Amino acid sequence: MIDFGIDKLAIIGAVALIVIGPERLPRVARTVGALVGKAQRYVSQVQSEVNRSIELEELRKVQSSVQNAASDLQQSVQSGLSDADAALNGTDTESHTSASTYTPSYSHLYAPRRKSFRLKRGATPLWYKQKNGVKRHVQSGAARVARFRPPAGR
């Protein structure tokens, strides 16, 4: 980039003072300053956009490498499970003399539990609240006042 020293800036200022004149020089300097500021903002905006696109490309590369690693891990786990299943069933990869063709079903272990959507569950279990005397029902302030208000007849 162009290197401006103090001596060069002084020469440019003197020439601008002679050419433009002392009356219009402050207005021209403000205009030039505003234009330089706009140019700097535009350059910084373009630079940040380029940096974002570079970071996005790097993130895409990382994502693809993580997906490849996950698929490799999944394949190794599947092969390990199939080897363990074969060992548990008594079938070797070399001899297939076993008459049993049992394949275990793990769906009952991973089936989602049905929850009642109307039942609100707290973090503290009910048996603990009952044992320690913790309040289980919430009452509003108005209901509490009405509950403990003395009878009106007295």
UniProtKB/TrEMBL annotation:
InterPro entries linked: TatA/B/E (IPR003369), TatB (IPR018448)
GO cellular component, one term: TAT protein transport complex
Job of this protein: Part of the twin-arginine translocation (Tat) system that transports large folded proteins containing a characteristic twin-arginine motif in their signal peptide across membranes. Together with TatC, TatB is part of a receptor directly interacting with Tat signal peptides. TatB may form an oligomeric binding site that transiently accommodates folded Tat precursor proteins before their translocation.
GO molecular function, one term: protein transmembrane transporter activity
Pfam families in UniProt: TatA_B_E
Major subcellular location class: membrane
Positions with biased composition (Polar residues): 71-81, 90-103
Domain of life, source organism: Bacteria
Gene name for this UniProt entry: tatB
GO biological process, one term: protein transport by the Tat complex
Name assigned to this protein: Sec-independent protein translocase protein TatB
Stretches for region Disordered: 71-103
Subunit record text: The Tat system comprises two distinct complexes: a TatABC complex, containing multiple copies of TatA, TatB and TatC subunits, and a separate TatA complex, containing only TatA subunits. Substrates initially bind to the TatABC complex, which probably triggers association of the separate TatA complex to form the active translocon.
Membrane topology per record: Single-pass membrane protein
Subcellular locations according to the entry: Cell membrane; Membrane
Family of the protein in this entry: Belongs to the TatB family.
Keyword vocabulary terms for this entry: Cell inner membrane, Cell membrane, Membrane, Protein transport, Translocation, Transmembrane, Transmembrane helix, Transport
